[in-house]
Amino acid sequence: MALIQDVADLLATPEVRVEGALKAGGRARYVSDVRRPGMLWARFLLSPLPHARIVAIDTAKAKAVPGVHAVLTGADIGPRRFGRALLDWPVLAYERVRFVGERVAAVAAETREAAEAAVALIDVEYEELPAVYDPEAAIAPDAPILHPNVAEYGERPGAPSHPNVQAHAFAQKGEPDIERVFAQADLVIEDRYVGTRQHQGFIEPRGCVIWIEDDGTVQVVTTCKGPYGLRGQLARVTGVPVDKIVVDAHFVGGDFGGKGTSIEEFACYYVAKETGRPVKAIMTYAEELAAGAPQHAATFYLRTGVMRDGRIVAHQSRTYVDNGAYGGGRPNLPTTVSGGMQCLYGYSIPNTHLEAWAVSTNLAPGGNMRAPGAVHRGFAGEVHIDHLARELGMDPLSFRLINALRPGDTGLTGEHFRNPRAVDVLEKLREETAWGSRPLPPNHGRGIALRARHVGEGKGELVVRLLSDARVEVLSATSDQGAGIATVMKRVAAATLSVNLDRVTVRYGTTAEAPNDGGVGGSHTTHVVGQATLNGATVLKSRLEELAAEVMGWPAGEVRLERDRFVVATDRGTSAAFEEVAERIARGGPVEVVGAYDAAEHHSPEGGDHNFYAYMVEVAVDPDSGQVRLIDVVAALDVGTIINPVAHQGQVDGGFIYGLGQAVTEELVIQDGNVVNANLGEYKLPTQMDTPPFRSVLVPTEIGPGPFGAKAAGELTNTAVAGAVANAVYDAVGVRVTTMPITAERVYDALHQRP
User: Fold this and answer.
1) Given this structure, which CATH class describes domain 135-199+305-416?
2) Strands 52-58 and 123-128: what pairing?
3) What's the Cα-to-Cα distance from 550 to each of 284, 477, 562, 629, rounded to whole Å?
4) Which residues on neighbouring strands pair with residue 739, listed in sequence order?
5) Average pLDDT over residues 465-479
6) Are both 3-27+457-602 and 440-445+610-755 of the same fold?
7) CATH class of domain segment(s) 440-445+610-755
8) 34-129+200-291: which CATH number, 3.90.1170.50, 3.10.20.880, 3.40.50.300, 3.30.70.1890?
9) What is the DSSP string of 171-211?
10) Domain segments of the chain: what residues?
């Protein structure tokens, strides 16, 4: 057995994924595996129109299909709306539809085929209404109003003046009259950039199984990665008390940000209530691509003033986030909209004027995607920075070094950073790539990008207990979305307790078993859950040392748990194996503690924690076709203490491939409100054959908010790829692509000056 007595032992011990054997052996249970006696299948009628009034719905033929048990519409359940923060998304369309793919009716039948046949027989009479697909057009004075009853949805951050604005943010720093600063700058550059809609690309589509027990308890098995959040939403929508809702979200089949948004669960509750039977619903991938909760589109207008010596003196930005028909898929609209102001994140700029809008349009509601919005703004900001450097005739890396955040600098809105490492990663990138030291062949180019990503915060709880067989169990409601958080819990608990690694087990618990959990995502899970584990293990260790003195008759206050043994500190020759003592302790009854952590109580006075990272990408561009081929990629990454080395490297490598798809291939193409490439064959997720040589160089530090100084990894490497690729394309062939992804068609059009 592997003994982990401290962090050094932890890092030297190969990790074994807690859930690895279940997944590799096909024994991990996903929603699609769940079967219940008498279970019905639910399917939904989806709107074919982007904006229309529902005049009438005829469900008679659908109800007559053999095997059909229920057909429900918005009129049957009323104007019930859900949302993670803004409650604006109807469970079933009520009075009008606002995007293609909106759920208009729900059918429950004995088989999926019968449900689909019934859906096809529902007749809906629509009255088409004007639609709008562009956020800037949507806030024009004459734009169609998508939500006449917007006041009923809850507070919209930033006091938006237009009904189609879901949230608004404004910030400034330095000189209030920024035009005066611009007038003094030696050079002012203005650019427009566009990030298009993209899907998260998780393996298992969204879905759920719901049934209602005889005592009224609602049981939910779901793909949603935030079980406590979903429980609260269901309670708000249905009126069922939270303690009568049990959510099981153990394995969610991948996430990449998207599985925080639930869609099917709310309608399925009403179908289960209507039929008295368990109900199962799983989206098809075509439905996911056409009407899931994709990454929003965004448009950025950037204006920056610089001096001839390379110093940025003023920066202004306007951002329009196309959030789709509803804001309910967002956990935090203020963060969504304010993130749009961070295009030049990672740089020290004395004077800023920043504004952003999240806007309703007649497209599928936006949701989160790995580092929500950061890919778009990273692309815009880094291409803009490169444009500035080139216009000044400066080396792009040197220009970034002049303006990079340093200790004591503040960010774009005046925020403080603890241990900013922008200079460190840029210097490491220069060293590792021999930047600027060798000529390149014709039509080859090198580009760089610098970004920073916050280490997320939040709060959470779990239980750490001694079992009767002398094992230690960590019980948590944290979902497994693939990052290996259960392995983090196991390793942190073992290192904190100073016991054999195999003595620690991690068990997932539903919301009826495990204490409150904040859900997976936002680069906070290792930080928050890891610290909660450390807290619980620390308290349990102290309690076990006290109990060991009692059961062994040793001096109180003198017992220490070290290297899997209980030792009397004043008599090192007196000791006993952990197993022997723990079994005696367990005879006296359960010993358990709640490990808890709230990041808000542990803020550093120096500022927030971030990962800084820099990319170098080398490309070859075919000027006859516009095809871009990546030749070499190097990333310099600011990292904290690494708890799971193999999983960490997997996150780094996978994040790059994820960013590669976002940068060069992935786009949900929209025509008249319809996604025209709603299949994986045309959406073009990158595969192994698309992967170029990639090397990551770690720039470690022990300063991090997680256990033992850990930082984040999940959103560390995808957000800088697009900017580096675009800059490399410019270096190769002299054209700047300002809309991502950077496809061959866009490069070709830029080369031939086609709009």
Assistant:
1) alpha beta
2) antiparallel
3) 59, 33, 18, 69
4) 194
5) 96
6) yes
7) alpha beta
8) 3.90.1170.50
9) EEES-S-HHHHHHH-SEEEEEEEEE--B----SSPPEEEEE
10) 3-27+457-602, 34-129+200-291, 135-199+305-416, 440-445+610-755
Would you list the DSSP string of 269-308? HHHHHHHSS-EEEE--HHHHHHHS-PBPEEEEEEEEEE-T
State which fold the 3-27+457-602 domain adopts.
Aldehyde Oxidoreductase; domain 4 (3.30.365)
585-606 core/surface letters (b: 16 or more CB in 10 A; e: else): bbeeeebbbbbbbebeeeeeee
Mean pLDDT of the chain: 95
pLDDT tens-digit profile of 611-626?
A: 999 999 999 999 999 9
Q: What is the pLDDT of residue 2?
A: 65
State the CB neighbour count (10 A cutoff) for residue 17. 18
Q: How far apart are CA 312 and CA 653, in angstroms?
A: 33
Cis peptide upstream of residue 741 (ω within 30 degrees of 0): yes
Residues 656, 657, 658, 659, Cα dihedral to 10°: 50
CA distance 592 to 477: 16
Number of helices (H), then strands (E), belonging to the chain: the values are: 21, 33
What is the tens place of the pLDDT at every residue in 663-707? 999 999 999 999 999 999 999 999 999 999 999 999 999 999 999
Helix (H) or strand (E) segment spanning residue 90: strand 89-90
**Crossing angle, helix 578-586 and helix 525-552, to 10 degrees?**
80
Report helix, strand and coil shares of the chain as percent, to nearest 5. 30, 30, 40
* Secondary structure (DSSP) of 298-340: EEEEEEEEE-TTS-EEEEEEEEEEE--S-STT-S-HHHHHHHT
Length of the chain: 755
Task: Determine the distance from the C-alpha atom of residue 16 to the mean position of all C-alpha atoms in its chain, rounded to a whole number.
Answer: 25
φ, ψ of residue 674 to 5 degrees: the values are -105, 140
Amino acid identity, residue 503? R
**Distance between CA atoms of 117 and 111, rounded to whole angstroms?**
10
The answer for residues whose C-beta is within 8 angstroms of residue 442's C-beta and 6 or more apart is: none
Percentage of residues in the chain having pLDDT higher than 70: 99
Using the predicted structure, report yes or no on whether residue 755 has a pLDDT greater than 70: no
For 390, residues 6+ apart whose C-beta sits below 8 A from its C-beta are 396, 730
DSSP string, 658-692: HHHHHHHT----EETTEETT-SHHHH----GGGPP
Tell the burial category of 38 from Cβ atoms under 10 Å away from its Cβ (0-12, 13-18, 19+): exposed
CA 199 vs CA 268, 370, 534: distances in Å:
24, 10, 35
Model confidence pLDDT, tens digit, residues 524-579: 999 999 999 999 999 999 999 999 999 999 999 999 999 999 999 998 889 999 99
Q: Are 608 and 418 in contact (CB under 8 A)?
A: yes
DSSP 52: E
**In a 10 Å sphere around its CB, with 0-12 CB exposed, 13-18 middle and 19+ buried, how is residue 383 labelled?**
buried
Q: Quickly list DSSP for 105-154.
A: EEEEESSHHHHHHHHTT-EEEEEE------HHHHTSTTSPPS-TTGGGG-
Are the beta carbons of 463 and 515 closer than 8 angstroms?
Answer: yes
Distance CA 181, CA 174 (A): 10
Buried b (16+ CB within 10 A) or exposed e, 406-432: eeebbbbbeeebbbbbbbbbbbbbbeb
Q: Does residue 389 carry a pLDDT above 90? A: yes
Helix (H) or strand (E) holding 447: strand 444-454
Q: How many CB atoms lie within 10 A of CB 176?
A: 9
Mean pLDDT of 412-418: 96
User: Is the pLDDT confidence value at 273 over 90?
Assistant: yes
